[in-house]
Specification:
The chain is an alpha+beta fold. It is 48% helix and 18% strand. Strands 1, 2, 3, 4, 5, 6, 7, 8, 9, 10, 11, 12 and 13 form a 13-stranded mixed beta sheet that branches. Strands 16, 17, 18, 19, 20, 21 and 22 form a 7-stranded mixed beta sheet that branches. 39% of the residues are buried.
Length: 820
């Protein structure tokens, strides 16, 4: 029976090649989108699920509030891990680790020691780390590998990199030097193959802090108030232990050792337990330098995939039911010969199953190409290894069943319900006319174009906002500014001065400033500050930008009142922006000059020497905040160089020459450091990477949805014109023009597109208005966006219909009326 169903199905496909092709293409596009997005979503949602008792593993994170403003940090203060291990009950296992960023690694092997510069995935930890997280040991003892100072455990991939060609057991006892820390290899663990945020490759014993003063100082083991993302603490709770109870114990311990200060009224510092499964998704606390996934984006991806798949299914339903009249006699004969309705439904479902199966095979074949095409959007670890991942096979099997039933069940129900007596008498035409004008079919067509037009409107509005954000006047000069960072390990004040002097001698450079981050960036600094005038007190978090006297000149930040910074102002005076001047009560910036700000960065009084115009310190997601510009003697706050280039001639390469000269000067002073630079306007553009990815995704969704909808519209137009072929012939004989016939054939479907526009416009406006709320400064949702989107969709639909309706309208009526 099944063989017979498939044989009939293939015969039907051969008789209706074009409709079958449209159905296969529509479903292939939808299934491809679903498969690729499933790969992305499944990749992110499987992070660190493989650890034993992962539901009882938590990270201890820190929450702050400063004058009611929340702040978050994924790390803890230095003494907390020791206190948790010795004083907190209900914790089965706890282990801190300290992340050593940009560490130089030296392998002193034989005469040619290998060197690896600026390595990041290195941590200092204890044996409890390997009790919490699952690693397979290849060499060494799990219990003794990290029990003494100056020991290190390596992952297999890193071990092979350090000691190529050696068996793992022969690597034990070898020496690895991390900056100034000399260690001995005591263990090799298998590099984790599963999806994980724990990408660490070198594990130095925590007890090394007892023998290395520099390392101990960096860990700040006695500083209760200092918090750093470098100091992480994970705990494994005992069964049935409530996380809230552990949080209470940790916070009680902290309060005993870090008493509130008089000037910290209204501020809070508390600890929270973050489940392991949330680490990969919570941008507030971050991971360990790796990618943080956004659940909202993943759900949006899932919704887009479902919409595109729905479009393909709608096409199938519309075209299959529209073809019903052509198969009505076949159905009538089958029923007369004894076929039951169940058998007919099985026949039609088997046809749907075959089309879906073909679409799935095409999707699996094209998935690697799609992933490569979207390589900038897809995470690095996502692969289309279908047969190597059983979960993907299960997903595809489920998709085949769901799509087959969703797409095929309704058409099968309709077609199998034909009355055999009526269809054999040739009365299927009236039945088909009812179907063709049914509310369901029209609703499905409207649904298709609602989805397509929504994507068009969303794409245009997102692109409009991105253009506005990138090109808006931020209050600073954006072009022709190069930013160069020096290595924190090798920088000195003397070398910085030499570097500046060399830069000033380059003819293509107009001006140089030494400071920290650019005026607009994602590297923010802030501190508490209080203004008192005897009547009121304004206490708040004040943003900080570090730069010398050329900082505001390089970026063309306008000085509204007072004077510019001078080298001697570092500990007693600063500039503020106009927003802060207004907050502390001065609408005229000149009135703020000379006033004193108390409790700056703790207890330092600072004098306002000037007020500058407002500029955006972050992306347009955030409003302009109160900020101070300060010069500093701290080497870490004046070792970023902001270089303004002179104007470039239209056909010149002055900027390329300037970059080459800057690099030469840098390598002369820092010969062992890598030269790294970027343009300021590129930094601004990177602030909107997420929006750029959203725009790209929407553009593809728009293109696919419009393409699928127009394919379905073309199929229905072909069917409709074929069904009304004799009617068109009669009308032409009676004098109807081509224009009249095209209008007749197109009006109904075009009106459905217009109805879809009316329905989708308020939905798109509301949705995009909610999305725009994420921006403190945003563009307007202009009426022309909707008019352009609707007009473009209407024109596209009309052109699609015209392809078939004009062909039908100009056909010779003699051919269609020959049998009459």
């Amino acid at each position: 029976m099944l063989k017979n169903h498939f044989k009939i199905a293939f015969r039907n496909f051969g008789r209706n090649k074009l409709f079958t092709l449209i159905n296969v293409i529509g479903l292939s596009i939808g299934i491809s989108a679903a498969l690729v997005i499933y790969l992305i979503v499944n990749y992110d949602f499987t992070f660190d699920k493989f650890h034993k008792d992962s539901d009882r593993i938590y990270r201890v994170v820190t929450n702050f509030t400063f004058e009611g403003q929340p702040s978050y940090n994924g790390g803890v203060s230095g003494p907390i891990p020791g206190a948790v291990k010795s004083q907190v009950t209900g914790v089965e296992e706890s282990e801190p680790f300290f992340i050593m960023y940009t560490t130089d690694v030296n392998i002193p092997a034989n005469k040619t020691p290998a060197k690896f510069k600026a390595q990041d995935d290195i941590i200092v930890t204890g044996k409890g780390y390997f009790n919490l997280f699952q690693y397979k040991w290849l060499a060494g003892s799990e219990k003794a590998a990290l029990d003494e100072p100056n020991k290190v455990v390596l992952t297999s991939k890193q071990a092979e990199r350090y000691f190529p060609g050696l068996p793992y057991d022969q690597m034990l006892g070898r020496t690895v030097v991390y900056d100034t820390i000399r260690t001995t290899v005591t263990g090799i663990v298998q590099t984790i193959k599963e999806n994980t945020d724990f990408r660490f490759t070198d594990f130095i014993s925590f007890s090394t802090t007892n023998t290395n003063k520099d390392l101990r100082a960096r860990l700040s083991l006695n500083n209760w108030g200092g918090t750093s993302q470098e100091r992480q603490l994970f705990v494994g709770l005992s069964p049935k232990t409530a996380p809230a109870d552990i949080e209470r114990q940790i916070n009680d311990i902290f309060k005993k050792h870090d008493k509130p200060r008089p000037n910290s009224k209204g501020n809070t510092h508390t600890f929270h337990l973050q489940p392991l499964e949330e680490v990969h998704f919570d941008a507030r606390y971050g991971t360990f330098g790796g990618r943080v996934a956004d659940k909202t984006t993943l759900f949006e991806l899932f919704a887009i995939a479902m919409f595109i798949l729905l479009l393909g299914c709608i096409n199938f339903i519309n075209l299959t039911t529209a073809q019903g009249a052509q198969r009505s006699k076949e159905i009538g004969i089958r029923k007369t010969m004894g076929s039951s309705r169940k058998q007919l439904i099985a026949q039609f479902l088997s046809e749907t199953f075959l089309i879906t199966l073909i679409a799935v095979i095409i999707s699996v074949t094209t998935a690697p190409v799609i992933l490569k095409l979207f390589s900038g959007f897809v995470p690095d670890g996502v692969t289309a290894d279908v047969f190597g991942q059983p979960a993907i096979l299960l997903f595809l099997a489920g998709l085949i069943v769901v799509v087959s039933l969703f797409s095929g069940f309704y058409p099968a129900l309709i077609l199998s319900g034909y009355n055999p007596v009526a269809v054999l008498k040739g009365q299927s035409q009236s039945s088909d006319n009812k179907t063709r004008n049914s509310v369901l079919r029209k609703s499905l067509i409207v649904t298709q174009f609602v989805i397509a037009q929504f994507f068009i409107m969303a794409t245009v509005l997102v692109s409009k906002q991105i253009y506005y954000a990138v090109h808006k006047d931020l209050g600073v000069k954006k072009d022709a500014i190069v930013i160069v960072n020096t290595n924190w390990k090798t920088r000195t004040a003397n070398l910085n001065r030499i570097f500046i002097n060399k830069l000033k001698a380059i003819p293509q450079i107009d001006m140089v400033s030494a400071g920290r981050d650019a005026p607009t960036s994602d590297d923010g600094h802030s501190t508490q500050a209080t203004y008192r005038d005897g009547k009121k007190e304004v206490k708040m978090e004040l943003g900080l930008k570090f730069g010398d006297e050329n900082y505001i000149k390089v970026y063309h930040i306008k000085l509204l009142a007072g004077r510019n910074l001078q080298p001697g102002d570092s500990t007693k005076a600063f500039l503020i922006n106009n927003t802060y001047a207004k907050i502390i009560g001065f609408n005229d910036p000149h009135d703020a000059v000379g006033k004193q700000i108390d409790d700056f960065n703790g207890d330092t009084p600072m004098k306002i020497i000037g007020v500058v115009s407002d500029f955006h310190q972050e992306s347009l997601h955030a409003p302009i905040a109160p900020i101070a510009i300060i010069t500093s003697t701290n080497i870490n706050f004046n070792s970023t160089f902001h270089i303004a280039l002179r104007s470039q001639t239209p056909s010149g390469d002055e900027w390329s020459q300037a970059i080459a000269s800057i690099k030469r000067a840098y390598k002369e002073i820092y010969p062992h450091d890598d030269f790294d630079y970027h343009f300021f306007d590129e930094t601004i553009a990177r602030l909107y990477d997420q929006e750029q990815r959203t725009s790209t995704l929407l553009s593809w969704a728009m293109g696919l949805s419009v393409f699928i909808s127009c394919m379905g519209l073309l199929g229905l137009a072909m069917y409709t014109t074929g069904l009304r072929r004799k009617e068109i012939g009669v009308r032409k004989v009676l004098g109807a023009t081509v224009t009249q016939i095209v209008t007749l054939l197109s009006t109904e479907l075009v009106m459905l597109v217009i109805l879809a526009f009316i329905i989708v416009t308020p939905i798109a406006w509301w949705t995009m208005n909610k999305w725009m709320q994420n921006f403190a400064d945003r563009t307007t949702i202009s009426w022309w966006v909707f008019a352009l989107s609707g007009g473009g969709m209407l024109l596209t639909a009309f052109l699609t219909l015209s392809f078939q309706t004009i062909k039908a309208a100009v056909a010779n009526p003699v051919k269609s009326l020959r049998s009459e």
